[in-house]
Design a protein that fits this description.
Order of helices and strands: EEEEHEEEH
Number of helices: 2
Strand content: 35-45%
CATH architecture: Alpha-Beta Complex
Structural class: mainly beta
Number of strands: 7
Distance between the termini: 35 Å
Shape: globular
Largest sheet: 4 strands, mixed
Number of domains: 1
Length: 142
């Protein structure tokens, strides 16, 4: 059984920032399930028995080797998309997360080709397919 395909998956999605207007993005590698070569913020599924904040802190640490200094819950999204030819449905709990940029490292080099800091006026390209909606929904909060 696959999360998001055989049943609704629940995930945390996080936009990490440095408190100075810079946001962290990762370039997805061929080892990701989809959207190879696209720039994404960060995220992962919530494990059974884990609450959303625990998942947020775990995923930020796994992906970027850094602790969450503070976070703001932005909202949620029902994400209906196609994953490798299969219809998928995820419930995404979206967060803005403050981290120390000096401590950030690529914790998943098998999944991410590169990491980069960008401001909202100069986002990397090409972006993950879900990010335009994310930015549209939360433009007043980020």
């Amino acid at each position: 059984m696959q999360k998001g395909i055989d049943y609704i998956g629940v995930a945390v999605v996080f936009l990490c920032h440095d408190g100075k207007g810079n946001y962290l993005f990762a370039k997805r590698s061929e080892n990701c399930r989809d959207e190879h070569g696209l720039w994404d913020c960060g995220g992962g599924a919530i494990d059974f028995g884990e609450n959303a904040v625990e998942a947020l802190k775990r995923e930020v640490k796994e992906e970027y080797c850094v602790d969450v200094l503070s976070y703001e819950f932005l909202g949620y999204r029902d994400v209906h998309r196609n994953e490798n030819g299969n219809p998928a449905h995820w419930l995404s709990l979206d967060f803005k997360v403050l981290v120390n940029p000096e401590q950030v490292k690529n914790g998943e080099p098998q999944k991410f080709k590169d990491l980069g800091w960008f401001n909202l006026d100069n986002l990397p390209k090409p972006l993950h397919s879900q990010l335009p909606r994310f930015f549209d929904l939360y433009k007043d909060k980020i």
